[in-house]
């Protein structure tokens, strides 16, 4: 949960800051795809101008993953 709430949004912010782009493109696999999904559903990947994610490709998210409700 900490990775989805804190680490992934911080990573996206850092990439945007370092590249000068407002959005990033994401390719995530397995547990990374599950953590990324949790980050998106939490609403923490939105900036003042909207979504920080341009596109996302998620692979191998297993059928047993339970994502928490966004609060």
Give the integer mean of the pLDDT values. Answer: 87
Portion in helices? 40-55%
**Distance N terminus to C terminus?**
13 Å
Order of helices and strands: HEHEEE
**Overall 3D shape:** globular
Low-confidence stretches: none
Largest sheet: 2 strands, parallel
Count of DSSP E strands? 4
Count helical runs: 2
Task: Work out the radius of gyration.
Answer: 12 Å
Provide the spatial order of strands within the biggest beta sheet. 1-4
Describe it for me?
This protein has 71 residues and is α+β, with helices and mostly antiparallel strands. Helix content is 42%, strand content 24%. The protein is built from 2 helices and 4 strands; from the N terminus they run H-E-H-E-E-E. It has helices spanning 2-19, 31-42, and strands spanning 24-29, 46-47, 50-51, 53-59. Strands 1-4 form a two-stranded parallel sheet. A two-stranded antiparallel sheet has the order 2-3. Helix 1 (2-19) crosses helix 2 (31-42). The longest helix is centred in the first third of the chain and has 18 residues, at 2-19. The chain starts with a helix and ends in a 12-residue tail after the last strand. The model has no long low-confidence stretch (mean pLDDT 87).
């Amino acid at each position: 949960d900490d990775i989805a709430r804190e680490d992934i949004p911080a990573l996206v912010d850092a990439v945007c800051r370092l590249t000068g782009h407002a959005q990033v493109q994401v390719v995530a696999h397995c547990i990374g795809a599950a953590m990324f999904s949790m980050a998106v559903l939490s609403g923490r990947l939105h900036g003042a101008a909207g979504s920080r994610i341009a596109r996302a490709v998620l692979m191998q998210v297993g059928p047993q993953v339970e994502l928490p409700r966004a609060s």
